[in-house]
Amino acid sequence: MTLHPGLSAVAGLIGTWRGEGAGEYPTIDPFAYTEEVTFSDVGKPFLHYMQRTWSPAGAPMHTETGYLRLVDGSSVEFVLAQPTGQAELAEGPLAATADGFTCELASRVSNSASAKQVDGTERRIELAGDVLTTHFAMAAVGVPMTHHLKSVMHRV
Ligand code: HEM
Can you give the residue ranges of the THAP4-like heme-binding domain (predicted)? Predict the structure, then answer.
């Protein structure tokens, strides 16, 4: 399958990544997790994204899925569905680096009636060769924008 030309700047994401993460928030106890992420080319001008995480004991933790789209080759739209009742519409610029890119996304969030209130999120995605680093912050449950997650994954 030929990759859509509009996706060339993010072609390096395609594949499966696995690694370790750490989470915290002022309202909860810090925690560690293992993360696996897959970006798939589906022959269209967007990538399909699937994420799963596990506790150190191997129990399933958070999972999320979505679509990553490039606008004009330099701006990212990442639409994400959370099983906890939030939908994130994350947007921001992509900056090329020597061996990948960095991408800073800020999102608008919709919350279901039963979801914990999330007012906004910020994601930073760094691709450097075979290392994918993610940062996630959120304004949620009455707390202003604050770091929640960081993970470092390698291509598998
Ligand atoms: C709380 C893990 C991603 C929003 C928590 C907690 C854990 C956790 C262990 C504390 C216990 C609990 O309430 O379940 C993770 C992991 C993630 C992840 C491993 C992915 C790697 C997200 C995302 C969002 C989010 C993407 C929002 C879109 C929240 C909220 C709370 C929370 C709102 C509740 C805080 C509170 O009640 O004080 N998370 N989370 N999390 N997380 Fe995450």
Answer: 7-155
